């Protein structure tokens, strides 16, 4: 699949590397196009948007909306991993996932992977236990496609939370991640939604 990963930070680098090992045609979209990073081309935002049938938003949470809304995204599937600083500073008034979908009505926005650390996104086995990941999108078909991608990443407990109003729960987890990070002093933790085996 042709995939453009926007952002060359921790999340973008981890996700792009995983996609490359899985055989996808992956490029970065960056403010600083130039030499490839770990064999992955680094294109301008515009060129990356043209390349990707799928787009990963791994941009800084405060700059994702203005950046992506200005690009040709029509007909594409956009996986949004972002968190807004406002979710950390206080109650979130508007989620990034819903704002992206409003700004890009002809793009299928899927919220996923905004809680686990970048180090676990493409390597969930590093925890040595089953842990959960959430997916939300208004388009059920898009949710199914992203769930299949997450399965290829190695995720086992993928919880389909329905439409993008679920972002109000998912993105409000950001301050919890920050607190846990402060407590543990490392990034190797995640949530697991424990339930009775007969009611999975
Ligand atoms: N780090 C994690 O473990 C983690 C886990 C879950 C979710 N998230 C979320 O994932 C997103 C990415 O996080 P991150 O830690 O990888 O990196 P980040 O520090 O939030 O920045 C990611 C990238 O955004 C681009 N960027 C920065 N400022 C920008 C601006 N003014 N305009 C346009 N683009 C700009 C940069 O890419 P270029 O220099 O290439 O343009 C940068 O590398 C965030 O929303 C974060 O909350 C992070």
Automatic annotation (TrEMBL):
- Which GO biological-process labels does this protein carry? copper ion import
Stretches assigned to the Pyrroline-5-carboxylate reductase catalytic N-terminal domain: 2-83
Q: Which GO terms fall under molecular function for this chain's record?
A: cupric reductase (NADH) activity; ferric-chelate reductase (NADPH) activity
Q: Which SUPFAM superfamilies match?
A: NAD(P)-binding Rossmann-fold domains
Q: Which domain of life is it from?
A: Bacteria
The record's annotation in Pfam families points to: F420_oxidored
Which keywords does this chain's UniProt record carry?
A: Oxidoreductase
- Leader sequence residues: none
User: Its GO CC terms?
Assistant: plasma membrane
List the Gene3D superfamilies. NAD(P)-binding Rossmann-like Domain
The record ties this protein, via InterPro entries, to: NAD(P)-bd_dom_sf, P5C_Rdtase_cat_N, STEAP_metalloreductase
Protein name per the record:
Pyrroline-5-carboxylate reductase catalytic N-terminal domain-containing protein
Organism in which the protein naturally occurs? Stigmatella erecta
